[in-house]
Amino acid sequence: MNVLVAVDARLYRTPDGRVWCKTIYGYDFWTRYLAVFDEITVISRLGAANNEEVKGWLRSDGPHVHFADMPMVRGPKGYLIHFTSFFKSAFKASLKSDCAIIRLPSLPATFVEIVYELLKKPYVLEVVADPKNAYSEKPLAARVLSYLLKRACLHANGVSYVTQFALQKDYPCTAHIQSNHTDEYFESYYSSIILRESFFTAPRHYQSFKNTIKLIHTANNINNDVKGHDVVIKVVKKLCDAGVDVSITFIGDGDRRAALERMARDLGIGDRVHFTGLLSSSNEVREMLLKADLFIFPTKAEGLPRAVIEAMAVGLPCLSTPVNGIPELLPPQYMFDPLDVDGFANAVEHLMANPEEMNQMSSMNVNKAREYEYGILDQRRRCFYDKLKEVVNASK
């Protein structure tokens, strides 16, 4: 059985025919689908690159994984210009597959959802974020994608959410509304994270900080202020002014990096703010997390953040925001408004003065993160995908 997997990604094909991505969608990601389906076709924006450009990236192609191209565009104008091409790509790919798994919110993937709905072919959704938050800096896009996501959830055979409760409230599916799973309509929840047993550590044991602390923050794409990089820099400045020997490491890269580095220099803390650049490998990310004392993440928009769960898995105490699924991970006393510089700074100072509390946080976080270990999530995913296969077989 061939399943079409629609993702919101920018993939690149090199002259040798191999396909690459910067993060997440390496071949290892597709194996979750290959555990249930014979072949998968990934449909996404796909452009060309040379071998030099993709150094350090993840290889996305591999056995039983095929690719369907969509135009490589960004911004509303690009989608309008290539509107017909997106539909043609989605329609052509749909004819070669038995069913679809569509990851939303995503404008490219929405074209696939509409085609499958029109053709009345079986498909399910994996809802990975709330567009109202994810596109908060683009109000029109947020409204459009929110509407499209609500609509899609009502038409899909099955919907799985990255949160256990949060996204279900605003984007209910048919099975959720009817409070009844049937052979045709069903729902589930599981994170997209790939967190294997080898990633975990034992809880940490903090003693005295001697007024020195290393903070860390993870966001692969630094293209806007949604993940709170600017807030973290202000927190570091406030702590420095209070006499704390603090530094911050930002994992990730993007268009906003230069402006953030300039902001740090202008505040006189350029030597305390470090960017690693893009780390494609989870092992590289893990190594950086192990060197830090505290994870800080003033994000404005999330589904259920992989970054927080990875930090928890290596025993880091975490400070974040009460956005979407994060309250499913952290207690309320460790969440603050995304713009609350004073709240985050005061929390860091409080924890430095109370290492035993950090020990408790570390233990609690490791235990919570274990709920997202790959094997546990994979069982839930397989059950969800098996139900999609049953719908396909029943429709033949």
Question: What this model shows, in words?
Answer:
The chain is an alpha/beta fold. 40% of the residues lie in helices and 20% in strands. The protein contains 15 helices and 14 strands. The strands form two sheets. Strands 1, 2, 3, 4, 5, 6, 7, 8 and 9 form a nine-stranded mixed sheet that branches. A five-stranded parallel sheet has the order 12-11-10-13-14, with helices on both faces. α12 (306-313) links the parallel β13 (294-296) and β14 (318-319). α3 packs across α4 (107-119), α4 packs parallel to α6 (139-155) and α12 (306-313) packs across α14 (355-369).
Main attributes of the structure:
396 residues, alpha/beta, Rossmann fold, 2 domains, nine-stranded mixed sheet, 40% helix, 20% strand
Task: Tally the beta strands.
Answer: 14
The portion of residues assigned to helices is 40-55%
CATH topology of the largest domain: Rossmann fold
Tell me the CATH architecture of the largest domain.
3-Layer(aba) Sandwich
Oligomer type: single chain
Form type: globular
Fold blueprint:
Blueprint: E1 2-13, E2 19-21, H1 27-34, E3 39-48, E4 58-59, E5 65-70, H2 76-81, H3 83-95, E6 99-104, H4 107-119, E7 123-127, H5 131-134, H6 139-155, E8 158-161, H7 166-170, H8 174-178, E9 186-189, E10 212-221, H9 229-241, E11 245-253, H10 257-266, E12 273-275, H11 282-290, E13 294-296, H12 306-313, E14 318-319, H13 341-352, H14 355-369, H15 374-395
Parallel strand pairs: 1-3, 1-6, 3-5, 6-7, 7-8, 8-9, 10-11, 10-13, 11-12, 13-14
Antiparallel strand pairs: 1-2, 2-4
Helix pairs in contact: 3-4, 4-6, 9-13, 12-14
